[in-house]
Amino acid sequence: VIKRIETADGTILKKFYPVIKKKVPASESTIQLIKDALGDAVNRPHGTGWRAKIKGVEVAGKTGTAQVVKLKSDNDPDSDEGEIPYQQRDHAWFVAFAPKERAGIAVIVLVEHGGHGGRVAAPIARKLINGYLATTQRRNPSGPKKSYK
Questions:
Q1: What is the pLDDT of residues 59-113, one digit of tens each?
Q2: What whole-number distance in Å separates Cα of residue 61 and Cα of residue 38?
Q3: Which of 2, 30, 60, 130 is deepest in the core (most CB within 10 A)?
């Protein structure tokens, strides 16, 4: 997904625009409910994505863990992940967008054999979103760039 191609000095060479191929048949209230739940996963106490939280920006996201193999320790919350051979460790996922009500960026982070999404992938997403927001703010200090739903 590319928004634009530009030179190092900021000259825009080419812009790309979103093409809506299909819309999810859901009411506005359903969409809002989903956004609120994704926002809570990051911004509420004990949310699984709290490591993606950014002060002053409401990030919304969903953590995930993709199991590689069934291990004896799957049901043992006290198991030490460091004892699991690297190639058998779960993959860590985190999907996020920000700001929650008017998204300007969406990211998907997958860390192969990284473990749990909230612990490993969410902090990476936070860094990516922070970088994007800092760049956007430098280019347009008076406000956010146009965003798309």
A1: 999 999 988 888 665 555 555 666 888 888 899 999 999 999 999 899 999 999 9
A2: 5
A3: 60
Task: Report DSSP letters for the chain, one per residue.
Answer: --SEEE-TT--EEEE------------HHHHHHHHHHHHHHHHSTT-TTGGG-BTTB--EEEEEEE-SS--GGGG-TT--GGGS-GGGSPEEEEEEEESSSS-SEEEEEEETT---IIIIIHHHHHHHHHHHHHHHHHH-TTSPPP---
Q: Is 93 exposed, middle or buried (0-12, 13-18, 19+ CB in 10 A)?
A: buried
80: amino acid identity, one letter = D
Q: What is the pTM of this model?
A: 0.74
